[in-house]
Each structure stands twice: as structure tokens, then as C-alpha cells.
Write a structure and sequence with these properties.
The chain is α+β, with helices and mostly antiparallel strands and 169 residues long. Helices cover 37% and strands 12% of the residues. It has two domains: 73 residues, no CATH class; 65 residues, no CATH class. The structure holds zinc ion. The site of zinc ion has 9 residues, from helix 5.
Length: 169
């Protein structure tokens, strides 16, 4: 499964989040959990805890935090896969990413978010069309289908033109 699907399963099966465990062990994240409904304990998100923070309260811009500041909660459960396999797969994922980047460079990678659900937009190319074209589509809808979000969609060339015009303006 991809991370979106995993997030969904963790929520459905009410698996406590790492920050909830840290709160019960050390009292950290009290501002998140104290006086909040139990459902907070299972609110897994696709982003990993404390990897990002906002620049200021006025801005929604996210910045990546140094790895040393990420929250890690270890030994919360039996390992599903052993460490060796885990790291080998991580390497494979990295090399796969590099490959796709070489083939096409969608310049908005990581920047395009769905206006309705806030998830990232998935980049894809319609090769079935006589003239293949690329587009971004809501990845939340793509993962979970009808009733979750909508099939929000924008062609790459349309978005490119709109951003270019805005910059020139
Ligand atoms: Zn969406």
C-alpha cells in the first residue's frame, strides 16, 4: 500500500499515533491531546510528525525541519519488516524517483494541492490520447474514490500558462 492508504487503515483500525504514545509516556504534546476527543489519538496524517513547521502564524508556507528535530518514537510495536529489507526498499524508492525526474520534469512537483481536501495533486500523463498530455489530479480522490473528494483536475500546460502569465503580470 501507498502512504495514503496506510493512513486510512491506521485511522479505521484506531491505531494510536506516535505522538499520542509520547504524550502517554512523557506528557509531551499536551497541547494537542489534553481535553480533546479520543479520536485525536488516531488522527494519522500522511506527513510525519514534526518534519514540517509553519514559518509564522501569518503564513501557511511549510518549511522542512532538520532531521534532528523530527519526533521519533521507537519500539512501539513488533517490526512488520526487518530493518535490512526496509532500507533496501528505501534505496529502491529513491532510485525510482530519480528515474522519473529524468524522463519528465514537472516543475510544480510538491507544490500543487487540492483546493478542497488539501492533499497533493498527482502528476500523470495521458498517453492514450493522440497527443499525449500531462495533468495534475487530486491524489486523495485517486486513492479513495467517490465520496471522499472530487476528481479535481488541471492540465499541466494550462497550469503552466496560468502561472507564467501571473509571473509576467
Ligand atoms: Zn481533493
Amino acid at each position: 500500500y501507498g502512504s495514503a492508504k496506510i493512513t486510512k487503515v491506521l485511522r479505521e483500525e484506531k491505531v494510536p499515533t506516535a505522538s499520542w504514545l509520547n504524550f502517554t509516556r512523557y506528557g509531551t504534546f499536551a497541547h494537542i491531546f489534553e481535553g480533546k476527543p479520543d479520536s485525536k489519538r488516531y488522527e494519522w496524517t500522511i506527513s510525519v510528525h514534526n518534519r514540517q513547521s509553519t514559518v509564522s502564524f501569518k503564513s501557511k508556507k511549510k518549511v522542512r525541519k532538520p532531521e534532528s528535530e523530527w519526533f521519533r518514537v521507537e519500539n512501539t510495536h513488533e517490526p512488520i519488516i526487518d530493518k535490512e529489507v526496509f532500507y533496501r526498499v528505501q534505496e529502491q524508492i529513491k532510485s525510482r524517483r530519480r528515474q522519473t525526474k529524468e524522463k519528465a520534469t514537472p516543475i510544480f512537483a510538491g507544490l500543487v494541492k487540492c483546493a478542497d481536501c488539501g492533499w497533493s495533486m498527482r502528476f500523470a500523463t495521458n498517453k492514450a490520447n493522440k497527443t499525449p498530455y500531462s495533468y495534475y489530479a487530486c491524489s486523495y480522490y485517486g486513492q479513495f474514490g467517490k465520496g471522499t473528494c472530487s476528481m479535481h483536475y488541471i492540465r499541466y500546460d494550462v497550469l503552466y500558462q496560468a502561472v507564467l502569465e501571473r509571473l509576467q503580470y
